[in-house]
Amino acid sequence: MQKNYQTSPKFVHNLWTTNEDGEHYLRFTGGLYEVEQGDAQDFYKIRGYCTGHNTIADIAKKTNVPVQRIEEMVTSLSDIGMLRNKKKPHNEDILEKTIQACEMWAEQVEETHLFNKFLYGDTHRNVLTGFFIETWHYIKAFPDIINVAIKNTDNPELQSVLMTYKLQETGHESFILETLIKLGMKQEEVENAIPLVSTLNLINMMKALFITHPSTVFLIAKVIESHDFDEAEVKNAIQDINSHYDLQPGTLEPFFKHSQIDYELGHSRLLDDHLHLVTLANMEETSFILNALHDIKHAIDLQCLEIEEYYSKEGNYIPRQRVDYFGI
Fold first, then answer.
1. Which of 18, 50, 123, 325 could cysteine-pair with 127, CB 3.0–4.6 Å?
2. What is the spatial distance between Cα 265 and Cα 255, in angstroms, rounded to a whole number?
3. Does 94-327 match 15-79 at the fold level?
4. Are 179 and 252 in contact (CB under 8 A)?
5. Angle 110-111-113 (CA atoms, 0-180°, nearest 5)?
6. Pairwise CA distance, residues 43 & 69, whole Å
7. What is the rounded CA–CA span in Å between residue 245 and residue 239?
8. CATH of range 94-327; options 1.20.910.10, 1.10.10.10, 1.25.40.10, 2.60.120.10
9. Burial level of 117, CB count in 10 A (0-12/13-18/19+)?
């Protein structure tokens, strides 16, 4: 039996953000909306219970928000198309909506990423080092991640495009290593380190998706690759981080050089340039892919949290050490 989401609310995927001026914004595939502070705060109170398993009366009891107020919010959000609907509009493009979701998650990754804390000096110097260590692990592994997709497609054109992408990414960890050496790390200790569990998880989740759906490499690229490279902004970022962490000139430039190269190679445009290679067979397969992409987006969030937790804790090995037989 189909649920009535008007009475037992459940919404499409939605993101709520607050900018530096205290302005609240709602983002979903239907658009971007500025929301009054009081309305945003009221919705925060009920959002966690809007799973389709709680009636409005249930939510009111759990949150102490009046039934009438909840009904007002549900109606208002329904009017802009945010209420979940199990019927696909006949003229809706499945791939286009999937791309919109990727763009939304890319924005969220950028807005909430750990790197933003470095711009303001809001976390420990060791966390900065740890971020580059984990980035080195991830970038070193990325060609092998792409190779999983290459091995699991028999489409010659897709194989060719992915092979080019793989070759372009091969060796890029050297840029991060250069930054790490300038931060005081030795090449040998970086190369003998092992990644945090969250970094391994991110790598393995991508590989698992590419085994069954190789063309989703392009969807992942839409989420994770740099969509812009502004030299003035980069210069300001370098100055700010150097100041906060007392870094020597030239420390961060290799890291940003890698971002610039990826941007100029057009990695963020891989999906736009190869839409014809992305196949979404049906609604069930599309839903599986979207859920996997969303999980990977959260795996990036989790990695940021673990980097900060692990590398800020006094006594933890920097970098993380492998445990072998002789270490127990």
1. 123
2. 16
3. no
4. yes
5. 65
6. 10
7. 10
8. 1.20.910.10
9. middle
**Mean pLDDT for the chain overall:** 93
CATH architecture of 15-79: Orthogonal Bundle (1.10)
Structural tokens at position 227? 């969509």
Q: In the chain, helix, strand, coil percent, each to 5?
A: 65, 5, 30
What is the residue type of 141? A
Pick the more confident residue, 12 or 88: 12
Q: What six digits make up the tokens of 234?
A: 């980069």
- Helix (H) / strand (E) containing 94: helix 94-112
Rounded distance between C-alpha atoms, residue 37 and residue 58, angstroms: 24
pTM: 0.89
What single DSSP character describes residue 11? B
CA 84/CA 175 separation, integer angstroms: 45
109 CA to centre of own chain? 4
| Residue 1 confidence class, pLDDT cut points 50, 70, 90 | low
Q: What is the pLDDT of residues 156-183, one digit of tens each?
A: 999 999 999 999 999 999 999 999 999 9
Structure tokens at 71: 């009904």
**3-class secondary structure for 214-275?**
HHHHHHHHHHHCCCCCCHHHHHHHHHHHHHHHCCCCCCCHHHHHHHHHHHHCCHHHHHHHCH
In the numeric block, which tokens belong to residue 259? 């971002």
Q: Where are the domains of the chain?
A: 15-79, 94-327
SS3 of 35, please? strand
